[in-house]
Amino acid sequence: MHSGIIDEASGIIVRSINEVIKVIAFHLDDVARLPANIKEKLLRRMCQRGLLTNNNIGKIVTSHTRSLDLSGSDVTDIGLKSLRICKNLRKLDVSCSKEVREGITAEGIQEVAKSCPFLQAVSLRRCVRVTDTAVIPLAQSCRQLVELNLGGCSEITDASLVAISQSSRFLRSINFSHTKVTDEGVITLATGVGQKTLNEIHMSNCDDLTNDSIEAIVLFCPNVKTLIFHGCHCITEQSRQMLQGPQLDNMKQVTWTIY
Question: CB of 201 within 8 A of CB of 174?
């Protein structure tokens, strides 16, 4: 009996949220006055449907928001400025899964870095206008970063990895595929404060990486379990030989292309 009442109440809430979504564009001020727990349910549903915009996001997020997936929503730097109240945000995904995202730049990420110091997971995948001037303050302000995806951020250079190597001591997973990173950046990362915690590195299609990068990871990052570096044209057979033996035995996934 009690369980049935709870199920019925939950169903009513879901239906109510769906009805609110249909007319939300006309009642944003009313939505802003909803209780935080209801706004969080509304936020999750709108994230799933990719319905968040620069106009509505500020009316829906709350100081209790801990996870925000904007990968399917049309939000730019303007919308990111609305996250000033999200002091407890832990996870932010503004990636683009298919094409590229141009509306999010260093300006928007800098605002996030200042406002959300407890971020642990950030995905900026294919945000092609994100540069080192976004990643550096992100690393410096968000010292609890565990996962960082910069894949496809084509303007990222070694400067970002230097900042990460100095600040991100809890980092476990990083993706800087399709960037301008060189051996210098990878060596700095591999010998930085997070060298013992790193267990997943994606660095595919980085044209300037050589065997020196693989050697640094093998020597200084003993807990790496996943290493992806296919499409790096300057990495040769020598790297395959370095990955033989105990080091490869400890890994769960290694993907590369030997040239």
Answer: yes
Name the residue type at position 248.
L
Answer left, alpha or beta for residue 119, where phi above 0 means left and psi between -120 and 50 means alpha: beta
pLDDT at site 32? 81
- What backbone phi and psi angles, to 5 degrees, belong to 178? 60, 40
209 vs 157: CA distance, rounded Å:
12
The pTM of the full predicted model, rounded to 2 decimals, is: 0.90
What is the dihedral angle through the alpha carbons of 155, 224, 190, 144, rounded to the nearest 10 degrees? 70
**Interatomic CA distance for residues 196 and 216, integer angstroms:** 13
Over residues 37-45, the mean pLDDT reads 91
pLDDT tens column, 49-77: 999 999 999 999 999 999 999 999 999 99
Token output for 221: 């990052």
Helices (H), 50-149: 57-60, 77-80, 106-115, 132-141
